[in-house]
Amino acid sequence: MGEGGNTYWSKFVKDLSPYEPGEQPGDENVIKLNTNESPFGPSPAVLQAVKAELNDDIRLYPPSNGDPLKKEISEYYGLSEKQVFLGNGSDEVLAHAFNCFFRKKKPILFPEVTYSFYSVFCKLYGIKNQKISMSESLNINLEKYEVPNGGIIFPNPNAPTGTLLSLDNIRSLLKFNTESVVIIDEAYIDFGGESAIPLLQDYKNILITHTLSKSRALAGLRIGYALGSKDLIDGMYRVKNSFNSYPTSRLQIAAAIASFKDENYFQDSVKKIIKGRDDLTKGLHALGFYVIPSFGNFLLVTHSEHSAADIWRRLRQVGILVRHFDQSPISNYVRISVGCEIQNKVLLEALKKIFVTHLI
Ligand SMILES: *Cc1c(COP(=O)(O)O)cnc(C)c1O
């Protein structure tokens, strides 16, 4: 295929710059700390629910807007069912939200260092954007977002830095920003952050997105959702029902309901991840890493004596995958997903060995 792309393509396709996900190796022996998946399986009740759903009824389409799951989520958070939107992973939810709220004249705003899918959606929909620079410590400075815009989006905690914004901070932005939609991507909120859900009472222009891929260990099933005012959610359904009537299957709906019903298992996994994050942070400090304090299930780290590209490559050689984003200002950082206790130990041991042999 030449520079100009395939002649059969629609014109805009050659200008797209698709998202590049972290690799998914087939090899089971690889220690995968590169895509922020859960090191633990989902609740046994989830697996049971999926198996129970595997019957002749899969010949039937699922409920088109996933009503039973919408009900479960609305009850879990104390919201109305009209405030819940479901999708095939939160990436799809975000794609519909960009389409629904961000195709405006003014540029949308998002952090310079953030989830790279936002730029991808902008290209796809021809949305102008302005990337807002980070503070020196790679935090999001929300005051810089108080400028005219066509919309605002940021993850909280941010990815891949793991930094958290307080609700007071977000409230100040919302007091200023009343004319456009503010999307808060809470993919990692369950790992110790404070959700913006209570702000839904006071602000009709915020959309909060969640995923079951990280804290609920269901990345392979693709389930995400958005919470917002009835008006915003109505718009989302208009877009979604112009695209795919049935984005969440019977198996997805059954699995997600079972996950929300098993609160003990969920809390337990989250606690284990937070403990693992603390232990891993200590271990990395001991090896001389600078670790950005994280509220996610991952750590963004850098070392003054060893380049990130080197660390990434040498870990890969010993079967440990982490993520390296070769882009300023984080090109000398690697992102490490928090694994289970054993994975975290193996990682620290491997780093120790790499550093010793490097110095000889
Ligand atoms: C993982 C992630 C998502 C996407 O989650 P899916 O539900 O698996 O599509 C969205 N936003 C951020 C910031 C993420 O890290």
Question: Can you walk me through this structure?
Answer:
With 360 residues, the protein is α/β, with parallel strands linked by helices. It has 2 domains: 135 residues, Aspartate Aminotransferase, domain 1, CATH 3.90.1150; 219 residues, Aspartate Aminotransferase, domain 2. Helices cover 36% and strands 14% of the residues. It is built from 10 helices and 12 strands. It has a 7-stranded mixed β-sheet, sandwiched between helices. A 3-stranded antiparallel β-sheet has the order 9-10-12. The protein has a two-stranded parallel ribbon with strand order 1-11. Strand 9 and strand 10 form a beta hairpin. Helix 3 packs across helix 4 and helix 3 packs across helix 6. The mean pLDDT is 95. It binds pyridoxal-5'-phosphate (PLP). The site of pyridoxal-5'-phosphate has 12 residues, from helix 3.
Separate helix tally: 10
How much strand? 5-15%
The CATH architecture of the largest domain comes to 3-Layer(aba) Sandwich
- Mean pLDDT figure: 95
Order of helices and strands: EHHEHEHEEHEEEHHHEEHEEH
Which quaternary structure do these chains form? single chain
Q: Give the strand order of the largest sheet, numbering strands 1, 2, ... along the chain.
A: 2-8-7-6-5-3-4
- Under CATH, the topology of the largest domain can be stated as Aspartate Aminotransferase, domain 2
Using the CA coordinates, give the radius of gyration.
Answer: 21 Å
What is the straight-line distance between the termini?
46 Å
**What ligand molecules are bound, each kind once?**
pyridoxal-5'-phosphate
